[in-house]
Amino acid sequence: MKFGKRLKQHVQETLPGWRDMYLNYKGLKKLVRLIASSSEDEFVYLLDNELDKFNSFFIEQEEDFIIRHKELQQRIKRVIENDPSSQEEYENEMARIKKDIVDFHGEMVLLVNYSNINYTGMTKILKKYDKRTGGFLRLPFIQKVLEQPFFTTELISKLVKECETIIDELFPTMVVAEKMAKAVGTEAREGIFRNIVVALLTMKEIRKGSSTHSHFSLPILDLRDPELIRSFQLNSTIHII
Q: Which among 128, 130, 176, 199 has most CB atoms closer than 10 A?
């Protein structure tokens, strides 16, 4: 599938509030067809606007995730340290925590994918520009992209791992898939789980080895880990192969 169609499909499947935050690939692609080499400043200006959009959204989400992570830790600590008035109260609060952990984990996976897909879109549109104009804009601009906040996903990846550790510590006798499946109802799973699976499939597609793989490409993503695959396949009709 061509990148433009893949991006369109992904945007349609993602969270509604995120849809306007992705690269305007279609608009930039149309501009490349009409542009002349003398219009490089205008093209760079539009790309810079896209970077500003990515960074603002990414930083806002990242800050929100940091806060939510601390709040989850505090809630868990209170439940563990305080004596509940009843077993029912304890179980109800733990059920709410499990659901919130699932949602939190899923949204962070989506944000990592947000970074990956917008970076890939940038490299592809710059490649089209250089081919159309005979210029050499891609290399210096991608070097600039690599320094942007939206491209730096180490903190989010760390929070994802910590979230998984929390699940393991709270529910050590259950596999990840079972924890997630029991944490939310069918309707919720069809929403957030579908978004997560689509994100994983998109990351797999844009980070696979191919004849067009270059030093501008993201590292190849290996999704063959059996626990990861099983945890999402049990909650979606979409299969990762």
A: 199
Q: What's the rounded Cα separation, in Å, for the pair 135 and 85?
A: 70
Compute the average pLDDT of residues 101-105: 87
Within a 10 A sphere around the Cβ of 88, how many other Cβ atoms? 9
CA distances from 94 to 41, 58, 114, 189 (A): 55, 30, 30, 18
Query: What is the CB-side half-sphere exposure of residue 218 using CA atoms within 13 A?
Result: 25
Q: How much is the pLDDT for 184?
A: 44
| C-alpha angle 148-138-151 in degrees, rounded to nearest 5 | 20
Determine how many CB atoms are found less than 10 A away from the CB of residue 167. 18
Q: 148, 166, 178, 174: which is closest to 108 by C-alpha?
A: 166
> Quick one: how far is CA 25 from the chain centroid?
18
